[in-house]
């Protein structure tokens, strides 16, 4: 019977948690004081949600700006080509 490696080791989990800690702005502000893994995962989810909201907002603002630009301007064409 062959078993595939489907589980992750505790050391790998700790390494991933450390990487998340380094990526999150709130966690970086805390410095070396580590939050629990559960709290860090909740913060990660909240941060990702806020990034999604920010992307949506920026997308809406960009759409508005593009729609208000003169269709024939070279700047509008450059922006449109970048968005494709």
Structural description of this entry:
This protein has 84 residues and is an all-alpha fold. It has four helices and no strands. It is elongated. It starts with 9 loop residues before the first helix and ends with a helix. The model has no long low-confidence stretch (mean pLDDT 81). This is Transcription factor ILI5. Residues 1-51 form the BHLH domain. It holds the Pfam family bHLH_ILI. Keywords: Growth regulation, Transcription, Transcription regulation. Belongs to the bHLH protein family.
End-to-end distance, in Å?
Answer: 50 Å
Portion of residues in beta strands equals under 5%
Largest sheet: none
Helix/strand/pairing category: mainly alpha
- Based on DSSP secondary structure assignment, what is the total number of beta strands? 0
Q: Would you list the SSEs in sequence order as H and E?
A: HHHH
For the CA atoms, what is the radius of gyration?
21 Å
Total helical elements: 4
Q: In which range does the helix fraction lie?
A: over 70%
Low-confidence runs: none
Coarse morphology: elongated
Mean pLDDT, as a whole number? 81
């Amino acid at each position: 019977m062959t078993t595939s490696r489907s589980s992750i080791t505790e050391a790998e989990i700790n390494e991933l948690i450390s990487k998340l800690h380094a990526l999150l702005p709130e966690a970086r502000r805390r410095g070396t004081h580590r939050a629990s893994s559960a709290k860090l995962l909740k913060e990660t989810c909240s941060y990702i949600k806020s990034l999604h909201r920010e992307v949506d907002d920026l997308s809406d603002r960009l759409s508005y700006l593009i729609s208000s630009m003169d269709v024939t301007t070279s700047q509008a064409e450059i922006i449109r080509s970048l968005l494709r």
